[in-house]
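Support case: fe (ii) ion complex. Customer-provided input:
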Amino acid sequence: MENHNSNQPHEIIVKAQDPKVIEAVGAQFLRESMLKAQHQTRTLTLEVLSQIQEGMTEDEARKMALEIFSDYGVKKHWHRPYIRFGAGTALTFHDPIQPDYQLQENDPFYIDVGPVWKDEALGIEYEGDYGDTFILGENSEASLCAKTTRELFQKARQIWLTENATGEQIYSFLKKEAQQRGYILHEKVDGHRVSDFPHQKYSKERLAALTFKPADAIWVLEVQIFDPQKRFGAFFEDLL
Ligand SMILES: [Fe+2]
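Agent response - structure generated as follows:
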C-alpha cells in the first residue's frame, strides 16, 4: 500500500549526476601512470593471444592468461580474465563459461583482461582493462564482425572527442551504427570507470548512463556486438 499524503504534491526527485563525484580519483592519481598501466595491459593481451591454441578450453585459456600476468608481476586482477571461444563470443562476461568447448580452427575468440598494476615508487595500484577479438585461422564473417567492433570504437571515440558526446549519446550512436551494419549491440555491456584501484570506491556508474562528456583516461569504452543468429560476436574495449 502506498503511504504518502495525498494533500502533498507528488515529489519527483531527479538525481543529478555530479562529475566531481562520479569522476573522482585518488589524491596521488597520475594520468601518465594510468596510461602506462593500460599500455602494459595491451602488451600482455598480445602475449596471451600468442599462447592461444587449438584444442584449449576457455578455462585453460583463462588459467594461462593468469600465469602470464603473474610472470610479469601481476597477482591482482580487478576483474578476472574473460576468454570466449567460437559461439561463446556472442556471450558476455555475465554468462557462464563453456566448460567443454575446445577452440577449433577458424574460430573467433575474444580476450578481456582487467589486471591491477602497481606503481612501485608511490605504492599506488592502477587498473588496466583491455579487450579484443581474434580469429584462429580464417573466418571472413567473424573477422568482419571483429573489425566492426574496432571501427565502432574509433567512431564513438571521434564523436566523444570532436562533438563532446555524453555517455548516453555514445551508446545510442553505437546501437544505431551496429544495427545499420547488420549486428546487434549488447546493451548490458558498456563502459565504466577505471582509476587507481579500486574504481568502485569512486563510482559504479555505467558509461551508457552518463549525461555529461566523460573525462579522458578514467573511463573504458566497451563495444560488444553479435550476429543476429548468435553464431559469433566480437568485443573491443579500451581506455577513452
Ligand atoms: Fe575488461
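Residues 28 and 123 are 10 Å apart (CA to CA).

Case will auto-close in a few days if no follow-up is received.
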